[in-house]
Amino acid sequence: MTHDPTSGEAQPRFSFLPVPTEAEVPESVAKLWSKAQSNLGFVPNVFKAQALNGEQFQAWWSYFNLLLNKEGHLPPQERELVAVVVSSLNACLYCAVSHGAALRLTGMEASKADAVAVNWRQAPLSAREAALCAYAEKLTVTPAQMTESDLGALRAVGLGDHEIMELVQVTGMFNLTNRVSSALGFVPNAEYFSAGR
Predict the structure, then answer these.
(1) Does domain 74-194 have CATH number 3.30.300.20?
(2) Buried-most residue among 14, 17, 46, 156 (CB within 10 A)?
(3) Across all residues in the chain, what is the average pLDDT?
(4) Which of 27, 86, 7, 121 is nearest to 78 (CA)?
(5) Which residue(s) pair with 2 in the sheet?
(6) pTM assigned to the model
(7) Cα–Cα distances in angstroms (integers) from residue 123 to residues 114, 115, 117, 148, 197, in the given order
(8) pLDDT at residue number 12
(9) pLDDT of residue 93
(10) Residues in CB range of 85: below 8 A, 6 or more apart
């Protein structure tokens, strides 16, 4: 537990390292927290915990936001599908829960999204979804074994060069973010568990 000087109450810990207060972060980070509060109704714990190093947090968020939240080459649901598969494989509690919520909020049925989070092979996936998951799994688990031939299965389900590049980038981003989250014990916000159900 940590002490919240604004409320005087003990708050559950969600990082192994100290979490800065709004007064301790750069103004640009405080604005991002405020925007998240307005849009989501809460500030994601990952925003607070990573803001310990403000500039690095903002650089991470800029790339993460571009890959996951902006118009891309893959539909949002496919990007979130990959996020959940990678996070599940890495046993990253924060990302599996938060992006499981995001996957449900893209319109995927909760039972299917939950199956993806546990074992994507037992989820009722289309051929294209399964190809995305298989590629993300191989790149996550055995990256040294990737070869050009791995692209064949992606092309067979309709992915072009831009979609493949984005798939690789999203997979890479979640391997990075999973490691940061797991290394520092990030705990997902309670709001994620019920979102999209």
Answers:
(1) no
(2) 46
(3) 95
(4) 86
(5) 11
(6) 0.93
(7) 8, 5, 9, 27, 17
(8) 82
(9) 98
(10) 116, 120, 132, 133, 136, 137, 140
Amino acid at 5: P
pLDDT tens digits for range 139-174: 999 999 999 999 999 999 999 999 999 999 999 999
pLDDT band at residue 5, thresholds of 50, 70 and 90? very low
> Which residue ranges make up each domain of the chain?
74-194
Query: Facing residues of 11 across strands?
Result: 2
Report residue 168 CA to chain centroid gap. Answer: 14
Burial class (CB in 10 A: 0-12, 13-18, 19+), 103: buried
When pLDDT is averaged across residues 43-59 and rounded to a whole number, the result is 97
Contacts of 164 (CB under 8 A, 6+ apart): 151, 154, 155
Q: What is the DSSP letter of 18?
A: -
